[in-house]
Amino acid sequence: MEKLGRNDKCWCGSGKKYKQCHCAMDEKIASYAIAGHMVPEREMIKNPQQIEGIRKSGEINIAVLDYVAENIRLGMSTEEIDQMVYKKTKELGGIPAPLHYDGFPKSVCTSKNNEVCHGIPSPDIFLEDGDIINVDASTIYNGYFSDSSRMFCIGNVSEENKRLVEAAKKAVETGLSEVAPYHFIGDMGQAIQDYVNANGYSVVLDLGGHGVGLAFHEEPMITYIGPRGTEMLMVPGMVFTIEPMINRGKKEVYIDEESDWIVLTEDGSMSAQWEVTVLVTENGYEVLAY
To answer: What is the β-pairing status of strands 115-117 and 263-265?
Structure first.
């Protein structure tokens, strides 16, 4: 890290003097590093201007998923969901972040039943009675990124699958309850693991959340393993997603060879996921997209 004098301008780009901005926080972070903990790099910490940009991106992402919630219906194709997301995102001044990202062909991910994530919308895939589906939207607005997803139950969904969908949502809420400055990502991971295991489900360990804001995917990776007191220290200004993927069966997954994108449960069991973008604040957290 660059050594700054107390009267130098802060590294974060706020324009404030270092002593009035991140000096005290840097000293606190350094004490954790000396104690052997993993701490965030400066580029993982957003300044107020960047946070406001991410917040506005998140507002569009929320509006897009609200629009999906109002219009999703039995019998529609996942391609129609993709068209809805593209149209609404553009109408609100945003850009769908998934479109052409590393070759991904669509504007949103639509993951049905035993698809864990990265489902590709298609005119040949329809929403059938009893389906559960995750719609994962991500938005770029004025260069800032946000990312969130929701589950939808189509028609007459079995009680078992309704419980899975609700458990996946509760897993996110359980994780959020652990987000606070100078707590650890492992605290969140342990809480999610404990909740999911107690309810008879499994957490996918091969995939996780990620930093977000100035790029679609940033460091750190957010895992759901724990134990408490391990993994990266959370500090004010960090922005990341919480998105545990919860399976009714075993945790093992595989990537569909034909698409090279779609992740499915290895045992064919149902999977559910909710995702939020969260900011670590001075007093706790703020959800920027859901």
So the answer is: antiparallel
Euclidean distance between CA atoms 65 and 138, whole angstroms: 10
- How many of the other CB atoms lie within 10 Å of CB of 95? 18
- In the predicted model, residues of the chain with pLDDT beneath 70 are 1-2
- Global pTM reads 0.95
Residues β-bridged to residue 91: none
Q: Which residues on adjacent β-strands are paired with residue 153?
A: 132
| Interatomic CA distance for residues 154 and 72, integer angstroms | 9
Query: What per-residue confidence (pLDDT) applies to 187?
Result: 98
pLDDT at 251: 97
The answer to whether 67 and 88 have CB atoms below 8 angstroms apart is: yes
Where would I find the beta strands (DSSP E) of the chain? 95-96, 109-112, 115-117, 132-141, 144-153, 202-203, 209-211, 218-222, 239-242, 245-247, 253-255, 263-265, 271-273, 276-280, 285-289
What gap in Å lies between CA 259 and CA 110, rounded to an integer?
14
| Whole-angstrom distance, CA of residue 168 vs CA of residue 172 | 7
Give the Cα separation of 208 and 80 in Å (integer).
27
Cα separations (Å) of 2 from 7, 8, 14, 160? Answer: 14, 11, 16, 54
- Are the C-beta atoms of residues 239 and 54 closer than 8 Å to each other? yes
User: What's the pLDDT score for residue 1?
Assistant: 62
CA 251, 223, 219, 16 dihedral sign is positive
pLDDT single digits (tens) 212-258: 999 999 999 999 988 999 999 999 999 999 999 999 999 999 999 99
Q: Would you state the pLDDT for residue 226?
A: 86
Residue 43 neighbours by CB distance under 10 Å: 12
